[in-house]
C-alpha cells in the first residue's frame, strides 16, 4: 500500500519567540503567516512552514528543540488507511486516533491553514509525529 506523503511543517521549541522570528526572517527571508498567540508564530520559508513554540524552559529541559514533525496526506481516506496500518503493525498499544481539528484560533491549531483532520502518534523513541489531511474525503 503506497501512500502519498508530503512535508507539512516543522515545529521548534524556542526560548525567545521574537528573537527566533528575527533570526529566521534575517537568514531565510521567512514571512510571518499568523501570530494569534504570544506563544506561537507560523513562518513560511519557501514551501516549508515553520511553527515556533515559545517555551520558558532552557532547551535541555524541554522534550528537545524539535517539538514534532508533520506530514500531510491528500485525503481523510488516506489518513484512515494509515491509522489502520499502524494499529495492525503495532498491536497492543492504544494506536493513533483521527480527530477533527479545531477551527482557526481554537485549541492548539493557530496557524493560517489549519487541517480538517489530524492524527498524532509517537515513534519507538518517543518522537511525536503528526499526520494531517486538509480534505474531507478522497478526491475532494
Task: Give structural notes.
- With 140 residues, the chain is an alpha+beta fold.
- The protein is 19% helix and 37% strand.
- The chain has 2 helices and 8 strands.
- It has helices at 17-28, 76-89; strands at residues 6-14, 31-37, 40-45, 48-54, 66-73, 98-100, 117-122, 128-133.
- An 8-stranded mixed beta sheet has the order 2-3-4-1-5-8-7-6.
- The radius of gyration is 16 Å and the shape is globular.
- 19% of the residues are buried.
- The mean pLDDT is 77.
CATH superfamily: 2,3-Dihydroxybiphenyl 1,2-Dioxygenase, domain 1
pLDDT averaged residue by residue: 77
The oligomeric state of the chains shown is: single chain
CATH architecture: Roll
Based on secondary structure, the structural category is alpha+beta
Number of strands: 8
Q: Report the helical percentage.
A: 10-25%
Question: Hey, roughly how much beta strand do the residues contain?
Answer: 35-45%
Q: Measured on Cα atoms, how large is the radius of gyration? A: 16 Å
Straight-line N-to-C gap: 21 Å
Runs in which pLDDT lies below 50 for 5 or more consecutive residues are none
SSE order and pairing:
Elements: E1 6-14, H1 17-28, E2 31-37, E3 40-45, E4 48-54, E5 66-73, H2 76-89, E6 98-100, E7 117-122, E8 128-133
Parallel strand pairs: 1-4, 5-8
Antiparallel strand pairs: 1-5, 2-3, 3-4, 6-7, 7-8
Amino acid at each position: 500500500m503506497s501512500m502519498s506523503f508530503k512535508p507539512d511543517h516543522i515545529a521548534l521549541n524556542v526560548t525567545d519567540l521574537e528573537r527566533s522570528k528575527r533570526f529566521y526572517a534575517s537568514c531565510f527571508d521567512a514571512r510571518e503567516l499568523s501570530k494569534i498567540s504570544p506563544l506561537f508564530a507560523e513562518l513560511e520559508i519557501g514551501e516549508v512552514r515553520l511553527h515556533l513554540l515559545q517555551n520558558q524552559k532552557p532547551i535541555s529541559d524541554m522534550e528537545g528543540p524539535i517539538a514534532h514533525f508533520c506530514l500531510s496526506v491528500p485525503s481523510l481516506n488516506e489518513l484512515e488507511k494509515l491509522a489502520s496500518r499502524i494499529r495492525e503493525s503495532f498491536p497492543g498499544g492504544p494506536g493513533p486516533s483521527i480527530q477533527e481539528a479545531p477551527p482557526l484560533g481554537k485549541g492548539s491549531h493557530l496557524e493560517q491553514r489549519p487541517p480538517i483532520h489530524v492524527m498524532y502518534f509517537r515513534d519507538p523513541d518517543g518522537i511525536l509525529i503528526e499526520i494531517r489531511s486538509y480534505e474531507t474525503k478522497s478526491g475532494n
